[in-house]
Amino acid sequence: MKRCAKRHPLDTVPPTLETLREDHIIQRVLCHDLEMLADGLPALPPLTAIRRLCDRIDRVVTTHFRRAEAILGNLPAEQRPGFCSLTELRHMHQMDEVHAEDLIAALWHYARQGDESEVGQLAYMLRCFFDGCRRAIALKESWIAKAGRDLGYD
């Protein structure tokens, strides 16, 4: 998958816990949209909508995941999740990245071919991705809540 070399303007702003919370809102909306897509199969939206969904998936896994790991890893030692916890998060993100790549390929394949015998597989792939994202969000939110209280951000 070819990535755009141009940086998004928001990528130049130093990320904070609030940035992470905002990323989670964006990710939750994406998960909701993907769940609605799965529920509506075998119908798919137009190709332009599929392209936008795929772009959003790509942005989450290429930008949001890295930013979350950086934010959490750079918290003061007292608020920072432990090394093993951060490693677990990284593994979750890696799994979600693999699911995202497979999902994007499957969405394009299904959108072009329209083979309804593959609907079950596509639905499963959609659910794997958004369930994985939601699981990682829940873990990060538990750390954000604690760090926010400790740092007086609540």
Automatic annotation (TrEMBL):
Please state what the protein is called: Hemerythrin domain-containing protein
Source superkingdom: Bacteria
Where the record annotates domain Hemerythrin-like, the positions are 17-142
